[in-house]
Amino acid sequence: MAILGSIIKGVIHAKDVFSGEPNHVEEQKNVLKNLLESAKNTQFGKHYNFKAILDHEKQEKKFADSIPYFDYNQIHETWWHKLHDGETDVTWPDKPSYFALSSGTTGKSSKRIPVTDEMIEAIRQAGIKQVFALSNFNLPTDFFEKEIMMLGSSTELKEKNDHLEGEISGISASNIPFWFKGYYKPGEEIAKIDDWDTRVQTIAERAKDWDIGALSGIPSWIELMLEKVIDYHHLNHIHEIWPNLQVFTSGGVAFGPYEKSFNALMGQPVTIIDTYLASEGFIACQMRPETTSMQLITDGGIYFEFVPFKPEYINEDGSLLQEAPALTLAEVSLNQDYILVISTVSGAWRYLIGDTIEFTDIERAEIKITGRTKFFLNTVGSQLSVNKMDDAVKHLEDTFSTKIPEYTICAKRCEDGEFYHCWYLGSDIKQPDTTEMAASLDSFLKEANKNYKVARSKALKGVRVTVVGPETFYDWNANNKKKGGQVKMERVMNEDTFAEWEAFTGN
């Protein structure tokens, strides 16, 4: 009998029974108040008079009226650059212990996002909250004795001046609680290997020594790791070496496009649990099996605001117009995409994280990610969000009986002077009929999106499809950024980047 597993599961269940349902709106009010109190004497807090906001009877409205929206470039150029010049108390008391490096999906150069000790603790608490939520998923007792493979960036952080730098997954993994280290794989030594290929090769060589019950990471890189393990040990599927694998905690991107290719590597079904950990903080995680939506972490170090995702509020570069209205959690509605705006214990204020979300259950504060503000394809009025593109790709997978884990798209003016949606699909399909695939994409999107249908009758001439191997996308990332970790493929490219992409693919 799994005695330790029984104890852990019992503790988790007891915590769940006695904790009760949270009031997310009240938690958010308290978070905002605590953020303002903590930062009122910083340079930022004095500049925007946080004390006056704290004294106001409607703190949320006064806060929104007093402080502009910031994207990374704006807050870095105005405020965060001072941290690299040795200044303290800039947007948060003292100075950050870490900087999270993130090129995200839209640039080659790394952003440097402050990560304070308070944020490390907030991420740790959010992780614990997710562990406690496992009691809702009806997992067997012995699952709680198995090891967890967390595949992120290297935990070998680089020391620079008076702080450490690395990607957020590496920073988080380097700060795991002592009691968790016995469960954590690939372990500290392997996790410090900076070169992705070497790290994955080492994991493959050691795989038979571990009893993995759960995986955690970005789907595309988890798949590559699993393929390496399967190939190295000449397996049919991953459950031949890790028979107790039962959970995959997916994060960073929507899991939907990877579902078919991921399941092809499994020997039996696994439970998929979505998480939303960004370089700026732990945003949300899935708390119950009845839904694939994630619950916002409303009692941690992040205050959320929501701007309706409408073309009239968005500049061409994906930034927000300052007059765009921001709603609180108490004011949102269903069936509306929102641009996510956050303020955090790392000194990000009214910060555009770049994602769009939709509420699926307001009372539970449950959301799903619907896309990226910069991946909103509206060059010729088509108004396509990433979730609509994901749905279209899933339609292609079903129609043509193939797997398409990666894709990218550009609204490109072609040789006849007309605009086309040019899709590159990552698939191993043999002798693809790209004309038929383009027609199927076009037909699906006309049915799914009225704005797209209108655009197709006017400025958007048609759809073109090119099929390349999925490895092309991984090689592109390796060439432009790096392999593994938090690296994600850009779903929408501008014409300049797309020209580089086509040159890279030889098309």
From TrEMBL:
One family name in Pfam for this protein: GH3_C
Coiled coil: none
Residue span, GH3 C-terminal domain: 390-495
Domain of life: Bacteria
Gene Ontology molecular function: acid-amino acid ligase activity
GO CC annotation, single: cytoplasm
Residue ranges of every copy of the GH3 middle domain listed in the record: 297-362
PANTHER family to which the protein is assigned, alphabetical: GH3 DOMAIN-CONTAINING PROTEIN
Name by which UniProt lists this protein: Putative auxin-regulated protein
Biological source species: Xanthomarina gelatinilytica
